[in-house]
């Protein structure tokens, strides 16, 4: 239903009337609005519906009847919201409006002066768009979380769809050099199906950020942003399948207790976090290294001295890789610590000791 009135609340009430009521839904003058609203049922006003029974007992059925009631008594009984809604509908009070916030949009297209046969040659034209993008981000205090760079090809009977390059960032950025470096790495891996006649850059996801502030004492080893940019550069250069991160696996065997996932893959975490475990080495050997025995003590460069009580691990019966081991933290004569285990499958007379990890 469509309606028009000098006030927004009045137009909304007129739109709620039925066609059989013969009430005009389009009025321009304030006096015509008053006459049209006076004929409407008072229960059309949402703030009046909780008191419909009380109004009916008073013989108050229209908005004109409602306006005729004493305002002081009406406010004590129904509260100020009802009178405020009534005044806004009739134009006796200003109606506050919430402005619609239009999301920021950056979508710029650039036609090339001539056909480009190689993706690397597009980088020069891309710089113009990236400079515009960085200026747009700085003016609005925004940073870019994801963007799309389209390479448009010939149109016509032999049209080829655009070649899209989607870039997502680990952390929102607005650095021109970083954008160009990632675009250059991605373009170097693209094989064009046809010549490029235009390029298009679109910001698909932006976020508000606080203006940068220089710290008095810079964080040693770089910031989170610099580490995130390094990972993004490695992904762009080597591919997402070649830049992986470790994720825990619910398995007691050290060699099976983690897996490798892409950086953006979501790995489930235990509800209560990872369980507490005895000390674990910083480096785990790919294969356990058998140790020689000297005087009933395992030897690695020098005889090893056990520094911890045994940690027994028995797992793997379900996949045919059964492991029954007693792990110890061992120390050599120079003070270096190692993670060693004794196979429980061997005999007590001839124990089999292995080196499995190195502590930092």
From TrEMBL:
UniProt entry keywords in alphabetical sequence: DNA damage
UniProt-listed InterPro entries: DNA/RNA_pol_sf (IPR043502), SulA_CellDiv_inhibitor (IPR050356)
DNA damage is among the record's keywords: yes
GO biological process: DNA repair
Tree of life domain: Bacteria
CDD domains recorded: PolY_like
Official protein name in the record: DNA polymerase Y family protein
Taxonomic lineage from the root: Bacteria, Pseudomonadati, Pseudomonadota, Betaproteobacteria, Burkholderiales
């Amino acid at each position: 239903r469509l309606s028009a009135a000098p006030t927004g609340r009045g137009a909304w009430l007129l739109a709620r009337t039925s066609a059989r009521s013969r009430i005009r839904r389009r009025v321009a003058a304030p006096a015509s609005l008053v006459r049209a609203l006076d004929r409407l049922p008072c229960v059309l006003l949402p703030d009046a519906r909780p008191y419909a029974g009380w109004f009916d007992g008073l013989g108050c059925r229209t908005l004109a009847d409602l306006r005729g009631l004493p305002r002081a008594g009406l406010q004590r009984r129904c509260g100020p919201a009802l009178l405020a809604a009534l005044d806004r509908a009739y134009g006796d009070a200003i109606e506050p409006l919430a402005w619609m916030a239009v999301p920021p949009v950056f979508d710029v297209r650039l036609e090339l002066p001539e056909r480009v046969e190689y993706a690397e040659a597009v980088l020069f034209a891309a710089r113009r768009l990236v400079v515009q993008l960085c200026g747009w981000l700085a003016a609005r205090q925004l940073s870019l979380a994801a963007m799309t760079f389209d390479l448009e090809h010939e149109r016509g009977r032999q049209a080829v769809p655009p070649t899209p390059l989607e870039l997502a960032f680990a952390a929102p950025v607005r650095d021109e050099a970083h954008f160009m470096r990632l675009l250059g790495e991605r373009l170097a891996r693209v094989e064009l199906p046809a010549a490029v006649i235009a390029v298009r850059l679109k910001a698909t996801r932006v976020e508000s950020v606080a203006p940068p502030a220089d710290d008095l004492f810079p964080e040693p080893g770089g910031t989170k942003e610099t580490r995130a940019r390094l990972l993004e550069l490695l992904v762009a250069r080597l591919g997402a399948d070649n830049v992986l991160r470790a994720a825990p696996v619910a398995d007691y065997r050290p060699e099976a207790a983690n897996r490798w996932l892409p950086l953006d893959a979501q790995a489930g975490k235990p509800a209560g976090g990872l369980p507490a475990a005895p000390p674990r080495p910083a480096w785990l050997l790919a294969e356990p290294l058998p140790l020689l025995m000297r005087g009933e003590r395992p030897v690695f460069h020098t005889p090893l001295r056990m520094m911890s009580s045994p940690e027994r691990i028995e797992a793997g019966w379900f996949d045919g890789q059964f492991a029954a081991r007693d792990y110890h933290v061992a120390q050599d004569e120079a003070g270096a610590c190692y993670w060693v285990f004794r196979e429980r499958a061997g005999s007590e007379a001839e124990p089999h000791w292995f080196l499995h990890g190195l502590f930092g």
